[in-house]
Amino acid sequence: MSKLFAIVLLFVTVCLFLANAAPAQILDAQTAISKIIAAYNRIPGPSRVYPAEVATLIDPNTFVPRNYFF
Question: CB-side exposure of 70: number of CA atoms within 13 Å?
Answer without folding.
Answer: 3
